[in-house]
Amino acid sequence: MGSRVAERMLTWQTQLARRAGVELCLRRVLVRDVGKPRMVEIGRELLTADAAQLLDDPSIQVVVEVAGGDEPMRSYLERAIASGKHVVTANKVVMANHGPELLSLAAEKNVDVYFEAAVGGGIPLISAFRTDLQANRIERVSAVINGTTNYVLGRMAAEELPLESAVREAQAAGYAEADPTDDVGGFDATYKLAILGSIAYEIRVRPSDIYREGIDGIEPVDFRYARELGYAIKLIAHTQRHPGRVEARVHPAMVPLDHPLAQVEGANNAVFVEGDLVGQVLLVGQGAGGRPTASAVVGDLIDLARSIRRGVQSRPSFSFDDRVGVIPMGEVVTRAYYRIRAEDRPGVLAAVGQVFAEEGVSISSFIQKDAWVEEKTAELVITTHPTADSRLQRARERIAQLEPVRAVSSFLRVF
Amino acid sequence: MGSRVAERMLTWQTQLARRAGVELCLRRVLVRDVGKPRMVEIGRELLTADAAQLLDDPSIQVVVEVAGGDEPMRSYLERAIASGKHVVTANKVVMANHGPELLSLAAEKNVDVYFEAAVGGGIPLISAFRTDLQANRIERVSAVINGTTNYVLGRMAAEELPLESAVREAQAAGYAEADPTDDVGGFDATYKLAILGSIAYEIRVRPSDIYREGIDGIEPVDFRYARELGYAIKLIAHTQRHPGRVEARVHPAMVPLDHPLAQVEGANNAVFVEGDLVGQVLLVGQGAGGRPTASAVVGDLIDLARSIRRGVQSRPSFSFDDRVGVIPMGEVVTRAYYRIRAEDRPGVLAAVGQVFAEEGVSISSFIQKDAWVEEKTAELVITTHPTADSRLQRARERIAQLEPVRAVSSFLRVF
User: Fold this and answer.
1) A 14-53 residues with CB below 8 A of B?
2) What is the DSSP letter of A215?
3) Is residue A120 part of a domain?
4) pLDDT surpassing 70 at residue A177
């Protein structure tokens, strides 16, 4: 990622200077190992393994951070801002966890913090919320914002692969890391949703406020049922405004096939925004990778350079209302899909139906398959109408405990 | 459109002031008829039918223009800029025809011209090119940028309606004007492509440079063949970079069903951008209508107000290279679809094939239907591989003159 940024800065100097109105000069590159061979030819004298050589150099006006992870990057960025340097960062973890603090320190120091690359690669998102959509009250943001899981789910759907095989394919294709937990567990999407939600509503949304579920419970057969019912399965990051509060959640969901988010392919990202004036806007592109990230980082750099040239801070400053909270998941109204394995004998349906009735959950569709004749078990696939999530969860637990039920093999929200 | 802008300014004063950092005060509204009843309650003292009351009032800092059309709007905007006022406009005709002049006058006067609303309603487009995508060399822009024709083509496809009926439906639904020429003839899309092309490549693309064809030659049966061949029919605005020149054209085209532009529904707009770093980005939303346009106009106003508050011009200025020209359509390499009605007798195929061979056009698919047994005529549907458009056109003319051919009933490019 860093090499792509350096490459564009070094090989596109004329164009960047023309567009920024000022020359962008690469002064120092912080790396772990100065001796390591690099993809891009960078003068050896620019490389350093000592952060102080950037952070304490008063001639450096802008610090670009594309390393990722919480510490030491948070401290580096804080130190840069505190000493009056502007910052361009692609760091979703730092921005999700400490963004408001860094932005308010930046406002105090009259410097800018740009972070377009932290969410959705080169897709214009942060800038869209900061300027284009400013005349709107944002009503909701729904996104497929993690390319790795989207690739994995796509492979599972296409080939009926188990999760582990699809993850291995994603690793081989360079879409998943050696330890895929951050993506598969929904953590990455949660950071990004925290950033998007904070900016969309001008409130403080912490990653820990967001309900999070990964894709690890999904089995190949769920994709078959999803198709049968007219859905795709996607890892959805969703936030929605309610009176005085917002909804914010990351989890796999059944998405109707004609919904734009159902059609997001491969490792792409897509963000669906609804504003009260603009209506629905959809923004799609590569959400990760060195080149798209460099597009966002260098785009931010150009905008920043323009404002530095004019001697002013050009960006609107942020404010985050701390009084607007996130609705607990149990209170969120949603629909659900249950896949239940039960003994194939009289009374099962009645017992399951009774639980739903007692929890006040209304059923939308019902499919029974007698898949395992020799075992005398059948698979019940049920989707519900919208209800409070706590009721759906209670129904799930109670059904799992019914005597003829072997397991609630899957539980997914329906979007 | 004007009412929606006024409404947001009058009813959202607090929010706008907070976001802009300064109060936005509606000072004067130019209307044709001061006495006419208005959708929005506007103090009668704000209304005037005299342009001078806005343009010559030194206390007015920003002129917002949402009236449309060339004159007198071009003169008004020029006068506003010349007297040091900033301008926010939704006027695609003025910006397509006179944008570079107005922008250079504005740079001279140190004021800003914002025109996000001129293309694609509230979809962030101009701002995306001006900032987010600045680190990229833009390779191509392909768009469904006229909502009216997209609605009309959608109705024709769904119900096999003739053009006239679909246009009447669009008029009834409020998507088409009483005189639909501007949309149906592709003029509107041409203005918008001129603006997008100019900004994407930083060159001067005049509407008159752009090859333009409307949707009026398309018949319901073409949609049936399109489906059979795996295409949708869309009015496409396309521009693409070539060494030293660009391609720029507006015409109906067969678009592969799995291409994102084939999936744009109703009156929506979609813009597909390819940059050398960012890869492919797709931006979709409502391209017209009072509310989306107001979203863009008021968004521009907020950004402008921020920059006025800081006492500087915040936007990058434009430059347009006049040496990069548009490739004549005849030289553009494209694929084509022919629907030919011919007598059903030996030798027809040979004759048609001979023409294609002589013109160096290679055939990609061929369907023959003996649709009219009593008349002894058949319909030949042919798609070609990519060739210079002049060859495709010459083949079309020569085939129409073949003795057994009654007519080349349709000729469409394949995207």
Assistant:
1) 15-16, 18-19, 21
2) S
3) no
4) yes
